[in-house]
Amino acid sequence: MGDEEYRLSIEYKNKKTSSARIVGNEISLSISDNMDEAAKREAISKLASRCVGARRKPELRRTIDRLNKKHFGKKVNKIFFKNMKSRWGSCSAAGNINISTRLLFAPPDVLEYVCIHELAHLKEMSHSPRFWALVEEAMPDYREKRDWLRKNGSDCCF
């Protein structure tokens, strides 16, 4: 979904909460000094992910709307990039679609596969043969994208 580069600026402060802002291509993080190192790393990952996800959300909306119009024609409600670690995406019965910010590190066609996967859930909520037929109809080579995620997904992280 692009090849933008960001400069990351981290400042540790004696405060209760951490915060972030993105201006241009600089992500400025203010991290609480009152955490252990693992919690600090987690806060950095989460806040950087949130900033970049917010910046890229309009592009994600356009991608999902384009794929939905072309292949599914279902009502899509809210779309979010989320800092999900255990899944690549999710879709609710209300038509809300969440996509992991980790996919910002994947090739565009892999991100499109996950979008198609979640859009197919608007027609079939299970992973039944009917569901996989919908995915394959929209993206005949989806197995290659799924295999890419299995092989390379652990490298996609903030």
Oligomeric state of the chains present here: single chain
Q: What is the total tally of β strands?
A: 6
Secondary-structure element order, as H and E?
A: EEEHEEEHHH
Q: What is the overall shape?
A: elongated
Question: What structural class do the secondary elements suggest?
Answer: alpha/beta
Helix count, DSSP H or I runs of 4 or more residues: 4
How would you describe this structure to a colleague?
The chain is of the alpha/beta class and 158 residues long. The protein has a single domain (7-155), classed as 2-Layer Sandwich (Zincin-like), CATH 3.30.2010.10. It has four helices and six strands, in the order E-E-E-H-E-E-E-H-H-H. The chain has helices spanning 37-72, 108-120, 129-138, 142-152; strands spanning 7-13, 19-23, 26-32, 79-82, 89-91, 97-100. Helix 1 packs across helix 2 (108-120).
